[in-house]
Amino acid sequence: MAKKRYSDPKLHIPKVNGRPSVATGKIWYVSFYWRTDPDGPLDKKFSFYKNINRLETAKERRAAGKALANAYRTALERGWNPQTKTAVLKGKRFDQPMTIQNSFRKAFEIKKKTKKQPTIDSYEFHMNRFLGWCKKNGYLGMEAHKFSIDHFYEYMDYVRFEYTSEKTGKPLSGTSVNNHIRNLSAFFTTLKNERIINVNFLKGIPKVDEDPVNNRAFTVDDIKKIKARLEKEDPYLIYFISFMLYPLLRPREICRLKVKDIDLGSGTLSVETKTESLSTRRIIQKLKPVIDKLQILDQPGDYHLFSNIDRPKPWSDAKLKSRVDHFGERFRKVKNKMGYGREYSLYSFRHTAIMDLYHSFQKKGMGDQEILFKLMPITQHKSVAGLKNYLRQHLRTLPPDHSDIYTIDF
Question: In CATH, which superfamily holds the domain spanning 220-394?
């Protein structure tokens, strides 16, 4: 067995007449001995004060000192080196120790070069939550290759059973927990590819049970009622929703739109989508009056088409997610008043539009396969299978009356 490089951290308590003293000159501190040579003697003493001596009573100093000793004990057990102040990974490839903190920052910089901003924002959010937990629990300075699956399950227990949402005050859903695992697994894969760790053990962690909420489509009557309500309470939102109904854009795609992306001459708009860096859509007749009302002709091309001041403006200072959340929150206030549950959101309008197109083709007597080929260039799905899967998730249809098939007359 290898020798431990340190002695157990102890609290030094100065005494007078056998009793702990806080008198001037009586210094309280935590200390331990360290082997400068891993195979040599415990030859170097480290002492730490950390403001213990500013506390006024012996009771306070004893409590603070014991807590400090426990902190150093934990840090030493997890690979902290008091000489370098870090847990050092041997090797000359990196210009800094590959601790949990440094390795994740490095992985994040690598990912930023190839991922789109929404993905980067998601990675950063989950990384910061993880590193915050590591800091609180003393793992931040631990060598990345020493961080094990058991350590990660400690974090899993935290996000599953201890953490509560700042917005709702409720525990995270199974979907949110799985999002944590997926994004952090992407980090560990990068660390493995960079040879900072040997294996990504997160790939073997099973997903937790989810309770997904699929956005439900509105009915035609719902659409009429919502528009009437918005005309009174938030008419600008009608324009935003129109870009979901007619060119079938998603909220984040609408928030990416700039004035220069609208080409009235050719009757097209261009936008970065979920699957393409640049997708071109036709401005159909139903959308033209909406664009006219936005009054974009005299606006600078770099202005965002939609903004939080209800007119085009430069809005790049806010992250895309914040811009999307702004409109989502505006609609949430209206739909909650109208009694629609959490299964309805802005996304429901896109589903509603696609379902409406499907049923319109169906009423013209088209078969399923013909409808799929008609819908694909409109919805921008890349494959028939992808569109069929989408329709399977959102289509709500009833079979026609089949009384004439029965031979039973009860």
Answer: Intergrase catalytic core (1.10.443.10)
